[in-house]
Amino acid sequence: MRKTRAAAAVTVVTVMGTLLAACGGGTSSDGGGSNEQPKTLTYWASNQGPNIAYDKKTLAPELAKFQKQTGIKVKLEVIPWSDLLNRILAATTSGQGPDVLNIGNTWSASLQATGALLPWSTKNFDAIGGKDRFNASAVAAAGAPGKDPAAVPLYSLAYALYYNKKMFHDAGITTPPTTWADVIKDGKKISKNGTSGKWGLGLEGSNLQENIHISYVLAKQHGADFFDKSGKPTFTSPGAVDAVMQYVDMMQKDKIINPGNAEYAQNQSLQDFAKNKTAMVMWQAAASNFNSQHMSPSDWGAVPMPVQSGAPGQGKQVNSMVAGINMAIFNNTKNVDGAKKFVKFMTSDAEQVILNKAYGSVPPIKTADSNAAFQQTDIKVMANTLQTSATPLPQVPSESQYETQVGTALKNLWANVAAGKTVTKATVKSALSKAQQQMTQ
Amino acid sequence: MTATVTSPSARDAGGEGMSGTGGARKKPRIPGRLRRSVIPYVLLLPAILFELLVHVIPMIVGVVISFRQLTLFFIHNWGAAPWSGLKNYQVAVDFNSAVGKSLLHSFWITVVFTVASVGLCWLFGTTAAIMLQDKFRGRGTLRTIFLIPYALPVYAAVITWAFMFQRDNGMVNHLIHDQLHLTDHASFWLIGNNSFVTLLVVSLWKGWPFAFLIVMAGLQNIPGDLYEAAAIDGAGMWQQIRKITMPSLRSVNQVLVLVLFLWTFNDFNTPFVLFGKNGNAPGSADLISFHIYQSSFSSWNFGSGSAMSVLLLLFLLVVTGVYLAVTSRGRKASDG
């Protein structure tokens, strides 16, 4: 009996050891993928349109076209932004992921550091038509400087300031704002110190990404950055504190933002805009969303995002981050050649026009810029911003942690203001300092 | 030679308490005994394998990870992550640092939340079970209705609560502010300090039907004669509950409170769905499971997250052990 027990114990330990080795080993790290399953691809698309159904409808005919051309069936999953990063992380950890995926371009350096994505060497770029086809600024936002990019630009975006023409007209505002002082002055005419039931500016206070995008550009305008040259966080520099204070004060002091926006994270501010409750929103490519809410293109206008003074440009005059979506190939793919073909297809001139037109974004390829499909007001504003006055978010491995920590700090500040608590520069500094202390890498 | 071979088997036989003593008489029985002792293990093997796969191995992997520096640079190839000894644990329990301080804060929030939620779930469940103990018209319907929250999928139920608690368009504010004018201004429920109340309400709504179900089952085992005898002796309802119902439910309650405690303390789904996957839970509703998840997924530092999880596991083991020891001793004393 004892022997049997011992044998059982040995068996259990052996089985466990084997399984542990299988689990703990992760996946082969030589990279590059294989071609074991040349007939199928799994594609994780980010949610670019007003909702997931819209994206599925947009992509389905294109994927069918690709299948007809190559015989490869693409299994599509459209993933909401709130889930995308966690899904990618889980896939990276387990090695069980899609073959091709969209990533927010600000995650490029972080994901590049994991080694989960196929590096786009010159050879790989040549397989899809060459690096030179793409706009340089878009490629710069696809990985850390000096390394092979981790992804290929797919859709480019920048922020624009959208304004509701009817509300501007009703308030007697004739020219849209160009500086933050104008935004506040115009906003006050509409929200009347928070008493009119209408609001000057809308935002998504519980959306960490938006908090980051706007506060980063504001910090740049104050001559600050959130990372120093060596990649160390510098969240509490006076410029960063001033920038966040300026942003928060639009709700607290100027009362041009509805305190209710503090809990928004599901594009509610666009609904408010379409319902004539909010006069301005800062957004990337909102046109298709407005369209789905029965706003005609003549109901809204779009102008470059505000600066502190003067005209948009480089340095302190930047007015948007380089936003965009990149397309990456997962290193664990079992159809690496098919995946490259798919990336080539999606970045081809014809598809770029179709897709960017459907999503209201700017094609990152040089040939498509002058296409007649991209002459709509906000697209022109975005394209111009990308060329002249946009700045990439820090391309450092801890970028996503920065988004979470500083984005959460902003979310909590909005919550405090909304709850009627006074937020001072000291409060802002302490919130940013707490965020910086949580940065553990 | 023969002697050395037979003597261990004789000792084995003695160890098993078998009646046979002589080697010669025992020999023919060995195959049967072997079969008897092996077959149960063979039959158990699939169950053991799945138990290992589903529970034990992930747990062991988690513990192993907690001793490694598993950051974003290594998540693609875990094997290459360097060993870090106790460093992850030191960071988690260094309450002077930001990471440790926020973990401790989250721990206390969770303790308060768990005590409140378990207490209220138990109170609501027990009260409802006792009220529905006597037969009356519509009792079956009421019992069914009460069990609905327990039967609903958590995600669907909690997302509905999240909609209802929205400040500008939610039903809760519409009721208590717009209709009943109970508050001066529309309150936030999903951000700020009220979120603790929100979390508690949803947790109670979700948890009390389980208490109700278990107590109701326990009540079926109390003989009706006891109540009849008590009524004849002149005991009122309160006395009956105190002297008969509660002592009879003791063993049921012991398990119920423990299970509720573990579920509530470890609750992840409720804050995850209620406060959005997009951001951290508000400070006043920062439950520890969600906190650990957030801190590992925002920093991509899974070693540190695992260390926190292991600490949580140890804490729950200690609490469970002490709880069972104390309540069982108390019961034995009262039974004896």
Coarse structural class of chain A: alpha/beta
Strands of the widest sheet of chain A, in order across it, are: 2-1-3-10-4
Q: What's the tally of helices of chain A?
A: 17
Poorly predicted regions of chain A: 10-31
CATH superfamily of the largest domain in chain A: Periplasmic binding protein-like II
Percentage of β-strand residues of chain B: under 5%
Number of strands of chain A: 11
**Which architecture of the domain at 97-300 in chain B per CATH?**
Orthogonal Bundle
| Class of secondary structure makeup of chain B | mainly alpha
Pfam family, one (chain A): SBP_bac_1
Keywords (chain A): Signal
Signal peptide (chain A): 1-21
Protein name (chain A): Sugar ABC transporter substrate-binding protein
Q: What do these coordinates show?
A:
Chain A folds into 2 domains: 40-157 and 322-391, D-Maltodextrin-Binding Protein, domain 2 (3-Layer(aba) Sandwich); 160-321 and 395-437, D-Maltodextrin-Binding Protein, domain 2 (3-Layer(aba) Sandwich). In chain A, 46% of the residues lie in helices and 13% in strands. Chain A has helices spanning 2-24, 52-70, 81-94, 108-114, 122-127, 136-140, 165-170, 180-191, 208-221, 238-252, 268-274, 287-292, 336-346, 349-359, 377-388, 399-418, 425-437, and strands at residues 40-46, 73-79, 100-104, 152-157, 160-164, 199-202, 278-283, 300-304, 320-321, 323-329, 390-391. Residues 10-31 of chain A have low confidence and may be disordered. With 336 residues, chain B is mainly alpha-helical. Chain B is 72% helix and 0% strand. Chain B has 15 helices and no strands. In chain B, helix 5 (98-131) crosses helix 9 (195-219) and helix 9 (195-219) runs antiparallel to helix 12 (250-265). The longest helix of chain B has 37 residues, at 30-66. Classes of the chains: A alpha/beta (441), B mainly alpha (336). The interface between A and B is large, with 57 and 55 residues. Chain A: It comes from Streptomyces montanisoli.
